[in-house]
Amino acid sequence: MKINVFVLLFLIIFCVVACNTRERKEKIISSDLDLDSAHTYIRSNHSHYTQFSDYNFITEQQWDSLNKITHHFKPASGYSIHKDYKTFGWHMFSKGSAYKSYNFSLLWGVSYFSYMVNAETGSYDTIHQWKTTALVDSAKVNNCKVFLTVSNFGEKRNTQFLKNPKAQKTLADSLSVLLNLRKANGINIDFEGVSSKDKKEFNQFIVVLSDRLHKVNPDYMVSVALYAVDYHKIFDIKTIDSSVDFYTLMGYDYYGGFSKHAGPVSPLKSSKQWGVHSLEYSVDYYLNKGVKPDKLIVGLPYYGDKWKTEDATIPSIAKKFLSHEMYSTIQELLDTKKYKISFDTVSATQYGIYEEKGVTKQLWFDDSLSLSYKYDWIKHKKLAGVGIWGLGYDHGYTELWELMANKFGQKQ
Length: 412
What we know:
This protein has helices at 2-30, 37-40, 44-52, 60-67, 135-141, 155-162, 165-181, 199-216, 237-240, 279-289, 327-335, 368-380, 399-408; strands spanning 79-81, 86-92, 109-117, 124-126, 145-153, 186-192, 221-226, 246-250, 261-262, 296-301, 303-309, 316-326, 340-344, 349-356, 359-365, 385-389, 409-411. The chain is α/β, with parallel strands linked by helices. It has an eight-stranded parallel barrel, surrounded by seven helices. Strand 3 and strand 4 (124-126) form a beta hairpin. Helix 7 runs parallel beside helix 8 (199-216) and helix 12 (368-380) runs parallel beside helix 13. The longest helix has 29 residues, at 2-30. The chain is globular.
């Protein structure tokens, strides 16, 4: 009888400890993203850009050589974008001539990344190959709209620029010239790391820039990239909405180099396991702020994140963030058969676990299966469409184009 009482007491203590541990772990996961991302984390847009910013290449052929782009594909031929949807993608300068493999008939719009704002003058530090790239011509031939992304990263640079009306006028004048040069359709404003103290100036800048561009050409379209989580409530939708033709949600980086745990880059819905922040949360947040569904394009990742983790559990504590990996690189990693692949139904995301010599790595990514869930959700919500960060990240593979044709296309 004494033994049974001892065993019972042990089980009670064990259960209490286990429950407390689980509860503590859930609290950590729930608050994994409750941080000041503007100060502690550089988004993938910026990190992907800075990865190649030190190269002084002046031709697309040089980028092709670096990326080993030697041949091109013609994916999902015979399809065009359905009139009810807007499919939008960003082409990063570092992808060189990867656009020769884009099916522009399946894209409503493409934005060249990027006009990097000189925060002091409003002119550009670089526009890469905007003036010469055949991407613009290829898109227009296929009735795909062409945009130029306008980027400024970091609190200090944004404050400097937003406090300078002269620099803002210079930017508007410079954009007018560059858009006219390529007969482009408009711009995509991607200002990241804006401080809450500059909120008023930022929203006013959007209104004034839109007004200036529309005076030059009433047909120019102005779009704004929205943060996945607007921690500092930077976007005043009521103020800017009449000046904005559409919004592109950066629906990724919910987990990344900043997070305490390895996890889904773009979780579909909020959950106890992965926290409140998700595509569902972000979209509902902006809709409640006044963004109309038919003006909201949801950007999704054609890349994944890799961590060194404490163990193979889900979620697992991140010991070290290793890298952002493009879709094509991920497929090459998977071909080695070293990663054990599973589908996380909670976040609608794929993940792989690799264990060797006491080291555990986790790779979280989206593919045709996970994206199909997210595409269907976008259609169910009656949103404008989907965005791709970034085009060409799947170079050498055609399945994501085929999925887009299936979900947003129609036979020509």
